[in-house]
Specification:
Layout (H helix, E strand, L loop, with lengths): L7 E2 L11 E6 L5 H13 L6 E6 L10 H8 L3 E2 L10 H6 E6 L2 H10 L7 E3 H7 L8 H7 L21 H22 L1
Helix pairs in contact: 1-7, 2-7, 5-7
Length: 189
C-alpha cells in the first residue's frame, strides 16, 4: 500500500484591517502570485500577524489555479483550495502595506494605472534584499524607507513566469518563490 502524501492547506486569505497586508502581484494571478501568497499564508499559520493576498494586472476573474500551479504547490506540501483569480483593486492598494511584484511589466503597470501604489510596490527580490528587519520599526515605515517609487526594476529582480511552460518550469518557479518567501518571512518578522 502506498502512503498518500500529506499536504498543508493554505489558510483562506483574510481581510482583517488590523493586520498589515502583504500583497503578491503577477500578471494573471495564476502562478507566481498564487504560489507566493499560499506559501506565505502557510508559513504564517492560522493566527497570522500579517494578512496575505494576491492578484494580477490582467486577470480573467474567478478562475481556479491551473493543474501545473497546483502540482508545483503540492511539490512543496501545500494545497490552496480557496484560490480564485482576481484583479488588483483600489481596495487592495488602500489596504496593502507592501505589494510585491514579479516582473518589470507589473511595476510599469502600477506606475501607469495606480501611481498612488508606487511607494509600496517593489519586486519580491528587492523587498527581500532591502527591507529593514522588523526590529527597525513597523512594516509601513520600513517599506516607506525603501523609496520604491524612485527605483527602476533591474534584470536581476525578475521571477520568470512559468506560464506556457511544462511542469518542470512550474516546479522551478515554485522552488525560487519558496526561497524568496522564506527570506521575506525573515524580513517581516
Amino acid at each position: 500500500m502506498t502512503d498518500k502524501p500529506t499536504y498543508v492547506e493554505a489558510p483562506r486569505p483574510d481581510d482583517d484591517p488590523t493586520r498589515p497586508l502583504v500583497y503578491f502581484l503577477c500578471t494573471g494571478n495564476a502562478a507566481r502570485s498564487v504560489m507566493g501568497s499560499a506559501m506565505l499564508r502557510v508559513k504564517l499559520g492560522p493566527d497570522p500577524v500579517f494578512s496575505v493576498d494576491s492578484g494580477g494586472t490582467h486577470v480573467l476573474p474567478g478562475q481556479v489555479m491551473s493543474v501545473r500551479t497546483r502540482t508545483a504547490l503540492e511539490g512543496h506540501g501545500i494545497r490552496d483550495p480557496f484560490h480564485r483569480s482576481r484583479q488588483l483593486t483600489i481596495g487592495d492598494i488602500e489596504r496593502a502595506s507592501v505589494i510585491v511584484a514579479m516582473e518589470p511589466d507589473h511595476l510599469r503597470w502600477i506606475r501607469r494605472m495606480h501611481p498612488e501604489a508606487a511607494p509600496i510596490t517593489g519586486s519580491l527580490k528587492r523587498v527581500v534584499r532591502d527591507l529593514a528587519p522588523a526590529s527597525e520599526g513597523g512594516l509601513d515605515d520600513r517599506v516607506a524607507a525603501l523609496q520604491l517609487e524612485h527605483i527602476d526594476f533591474e534584470d536581476w529582480e525578475e521571477v520568470i513566469d512559468p506560464g506556457g511552460g511544462e511542469q518542470p518550469v512550474f516546479h522551478a518557479a515554485a522552488a525560487e518563490i519558496a526561497e524568496l518567501v522564506d527570506a521575506l518571512l525573515d524580513r517581516l518578522l
